[in-house]
Amino acid sequence: MRILITNDDGINAPGLQVLERIAAEVAGPQGEVWTVAPAFEQSGVGHKISYTHPMMVIEMAARRYAAEGSPADCVLAGLYDVLDGARPDLVLSGVNRGNNAAENTLYSGTIGGAMEAALQGVPAIALSQYYGPANRDLADPFEAAAATGAEVVGRILDWNEWGGGDYGVFYSVNFPPCPAAEVKGTRVTVQGMRRDTYFSTEPHMSPSGRRFVWIKGGPQAVETAPDSDNQANLDGYVSVTPMRCDLTAHDLLDTLREKME
């Protein structure tokens, strides 16, 4: 099996090292793992592509490249430049430092990398490690992902459902904020919503007197619907959420047609 991996935390991120080990186990001794990751952190860029300017791609080691772009850029560079058309069997994106559950999904560069792979017709899985009081101070905060990641990816591959039609399915996997020994299992979930929790801004003045604003996140450990990704993670489970790139609100189409046509 040939696997292409990327992330949004950058080529030197510890979560990428975890993903390299997961990918190597999934690919097997005869497989290939290729890394194309951002040269610098690209958190929060979503599905951004560098459409208006070129990016530099540097070979760091055998099958390991850094690209001056977003995770979606890295997938494109991997598919059409680094691998030179030799398409991978699977794209893995992550392991993100922090959760990409609930509304975080919409901002995530980790999700954006998997989304681009899906649009290119390549099976893809995004993986993210929830941080919380029970794991953030561990010697390895990613130990839940490291211990269970290959098994979860393998089970998704065994399921082997990537959807039909114009927009294929990709998967978002979030590992719970707890030590590996406390992971309770796996739950298939919907994307949740943390109510009354939003991104916001916080102003700061620079030493030169110029005003800047930082983007600031809201509380993460907010309970959501029982069948949602975020709640499963807070309850100690790995969440697996099937997703599509189709943004159409299908539930409103018939009613809207009645009103508009």
UniProtKB/TrEMBL annotation:
Catalysed conversion reaction: a ribonucleoside 5'-phosphate + H2O = a ribonucleoside + phosphate
The keyword Mitochondrion is assigned to this record: no
Enzyme Commission (EC) number: 3.1.3.5
Domain (Survival protein SurE-like phosphatase/nucleotidase) ranges: 3-195
Compartmental location: Cytoplasm
Gene Ontology CC terms, in alphabetical order: cytoplasm
Main location, first listed in the record: cytoplasm
Binding-site positions, a divalent metal cation: D8, D9, S43, N96
Cofactor: a divalent metal cation
Keywords: Cytoplasm, Hydrolase, Metal-binding, Nucleotide-binding
Enzyme class: hydrolase
Cited function: Nucleotidase that shows phosphatase activity on nucleoside 5'-monophosphates.
Family according to the record: Belongs to the SurE nucleotidase family.
Record protein name field: 5'-nucleotidase SurE
Species whose genome carries this gene: Psychromarinibacter sediminicola
